[in-house]
Amino acid sequence: MPRDASELARRLARYAEAVCRHYLSNGRRQGRYWTVGDVRNTPGRSMFVRLIGPGSGPGAAGRWTDAASAEYGDLLDVIRESCGLIDFKDVADEARRFLSFSRIEPHGASKPDRTPVPVGSPEAAQRLFAMSQPIRRTLVETYLHNRGIKAVHDAGTLRFHPRCYYRPDEHSPTETWPAMIAAVTNLDGRITGAHRTWLDPDGFDAVRLGKAPIDTQRKAMGGLLGHAVRFGVAGEVMVAGEGIETMLSLRYAMPAMPMAAALSANHLAALLFPPALRRLYIACDADAAGDMALAALTERAEEAGVEALALSPRRGDFSEDLRAFGLRALHRTLRIQLAAQDVVRFMGPGAIMRDRKLGSLSGCQPSTLRDHPA
Question: Which of 90, 23, 102 is nearest to 367 (CA)?
């Protein structure tokens, strides 16, 4: 095992139970072990993770064995398999992200008081994201699948929280609902805010489209202006739009194209440009607010020397297009609106395979998130 991997495995072992609760959430603690179905977080009891023991050697904390499959490994293997990662760099990045957020002390250590942070602040957003779990095999993945998004590329910006607080107003009691949590980041990859989409645990219907039966199904917190929920790392070309589902629908059609969801028309108009950006596609919603955002962002892009091109849906937005017409029809719609060189680069036969080599289709690949203190 490389030195860096050994050190990461030892650091994770100090937080073995926290790692298991986060990445093997379908299991539970039984004495000195965490039991779960397998390393991919399937419910069951055939896999045992040792929670207490030395940092390395025989009986080390974090070592696991699956009695059914004869598989075994350490907590880096847990992160890799539960998140669907391939490259060690992505596994190491996810491990460092977890360790940078962790506030749980090793077994038997005293627990320091957690410093309160202002409600709705960037720090509160960072903590909410840290407390959430990868979306693989959760209600978030089911929700997106039911909206036609069968594969989520660069899903490290998305998390699932099974009991996210919701309060309709200051006079109402606090409720808890499962939620999709999205990290809002700046151009350096630092989390500045979070977006919550509360989900219906009872399933999907044609009216709410999988969102919870509450008055306000989406809320954002933290610093949003100029920032976005990002999928992929922007270079010379990217797509920007409003909603998360809209951008994930486009990302499903063009998995190699970097994308940014600004979360509203006003925030889309104020989106900050990456330094290397040369061409910006603006995925505008088909309404008055979308038209205003398109005009404002196009003007700002031209002033910055960035070519701005509109991507127009057939219906209200590209999420509606994907559900109504399917992936092939969405491909046809996009192909006639992209620059010729971008059709080849992002919609050619090699585009999806190149993206698969860079990372996972669904899981926790924090390609746009940098380690930072919470």
Answer: 90
| pLDDT per residue as tens digits for the range 320-365 | 999 999 999 999 999 999 999 999 999 876 554 444 443 344 444 3
189-219 tens-digit pLDDT? 899 999 999 999 988 888 889 999 999 999 9
pLDDT of residue 178: 94
Topology of the domain covering 122-222? DNA primase DNAg catalytic core, N-terminal domain (3.90.980)
pTM above threshold 0.85: no
Q: Quote the tokens at residue 152.
A: 């989520």
Assign 371 a pLDDT band (cuts: 50, 70, 90): very low
Structure tokens at 373: 């203190």
Pairing of strands 279-283, 237-241: parallel
- 3-state SS, one letter per residue, for the chain: CCHHHHHHHHHHHCCHHHHHHHHCCCCEEECCEEEECCCCCCCCCCEEEECCCCCCCCCCCCCEEECCCCCEECHHHHHHHHHCCCCHHHHHHHHHHHHHHCCCCCCCCCCCCCCCCCCCCHHHHHHHHHHCECCCCCHHHHHHHHCCCCCCCCHHHEEEEEEEEECCCCCCCCEEEEEEEEEEECCCCCEEEEEEEEECCCCCCCCCCCECCCCCCEEEEECCCCCEEEECCCCCEEEEECCHHHHHHHHHHCCCCCEEECCCHHHHHCCCCCCCCCEEEEECCCCHHHHHHHHHHHHHHHHCCCEEEEECCCCCCHHHHHHHHCHHHHHHHHHCCCCHHHHHHHHCCCHHHHHHHHCCCCCCCCCCCCCCCC
Q: How confident is the model at residue 231 (pLDDT cuts 50, 70, 90)?
A: very high
CATH number assigned to the domain with residue range 229-358, chosen from the 4 options 3.40.1360.10, 3.40.50.10490, 3.40.50.300, 2.50.20.10: 3.40.1360.10
Q: In the structure encoding, which two tokens stand for residue 235, read together?
A: 């270079």
Model pLDDT for residues 77-99, shown as the tens digit of each residue = 999 888 878 888 888 888 888 88
